[in-house]
Amino acid sequence: MSRDSATAADLERLAARVTSCARCPRLVVWREEAAADPPKRYRGERYWARPVPGFGDPSARLVIVGLAPAAHGANRTGRMFTGDRSGEWLYGALHRAGYATQPVSERRGDGLELGDAYLTAVVRCAPPANRPTTTERDECLPWMVDELRLLPRARALLALGSFAWDGALRSLRDLGHPTPRPRPRFGHLAEAAIGPYRLVGSFHPSQQNTFTGKLTREMLDAAIARAGALSREPAA
Q1: Residue 15 maps to which CATH number?
Q2: Which residue from 117, 119, 123, 204 lies 20 to 30 Å from 15 (Cα-Cα)?
Q3: Under a CB-based contact definition with an 8 Å cutoff, are residues 138 and 27 in contact?
């Protein structure tokens, strides 16, 4: 078995463990309530309604970190950033950058593949009002730590929003790479060097940010391009 095949198999086993997780009672109730009473446009669809595992290339050098699944996005489709407006922005940008085989992600099994990129999130279940508690964050964060351990070529993390930035710093700390002092502050195109990794910040492609112009397509493209460039630099 090749190294990439072994990594893919390990990630599949980890995904099976993620999807069976029920550590956070509030999130279990919320994700299932959202599935039981969906908006009219999604009625009749069978919701995933479980924790959402990571998605992407086992040999990825770029890891993209989100906050959590949306109640009627990834909680519905079972794939990170799939089925909502944030995902439309992100996958469109990944396609423009050459990381995604198509510009849209509608559902699992739609033919979309990622090359040299992997999507994950700090929290794996949809939280009420998109606001996980710190306890829920801490319960869920070990899944991302395990994913990073299983992505041997990963060199750059692109954090979508301040919550993802904080989660990335905590995950890298738990991997044995202490957070620099002073603590790196989040911002669009902010950067930090942490052990063998480079962390880049981007505003989250939420409707609030994209509708108000806080995040434009050009800004998201620039963040992906910068993180991608750093991911291809030789390890120090």
Answers
A1: 3.40.470.10
A2: 204
A3: no
Rg, the chain, Cα only: 17
In the sheet that holds 117-121, the strands lie side by side as: 55-56, 117-121, 62-66, 156-160, 197-202, 191-194
Distance between CA 233 and CA 47 in Å, rounded?
40
Q: Which domain holds residue 144?
A: 3-231
Annotate 104-137 with b (16+ C-beta within 10 A) or e (fewer): ebbeeeeebebebbbbbbbbbbbbeebebeeebb
Which of 19, 48, 49, 43 minimizes the C-alpha distance to 31?
49
What are the two backbone dihedrals, phi and then psi, of residue 119, each rounded to the nearest 5 degrees?
Answer: -105, 135
- Residue 66 burial by Cβ neighbours in a 10 Å radius (0-12, 13-18, 19+): buried
Beta-sheet pairing, 117-121 with 62-66: parallel
Q: How confident is the model at residue 5 (pLDDT cuts 50, 70, 90)?
A: low
Q: What is the pLDDT of residues 160-176, one digit of tens each?
A: 999 999 999 999 999 99
Percentage above 90 pLDDT, the chain: 94
Give kind and range of the element (H or E) at residue 120.
strand 117-121
Q: Is residue 75 part of a domain?
A: yes
Q: Are 115 and 138 in contact (CB under 8 A)?
A: no
> Are the CB atoms for 77 and 106 separated by under 8 Å?
yes
Coil, strand or helix at 98? coil
Task: Establish if 90 belongs to a structural domain.
Answer: yes
Strand-pair partners of 214 = none
Kindly state whether residue 236 falls inside one of the protein's structural domains: no
Tell me: cis bond preceding 182? Omega within 30 of 0 counts. Answer: yes
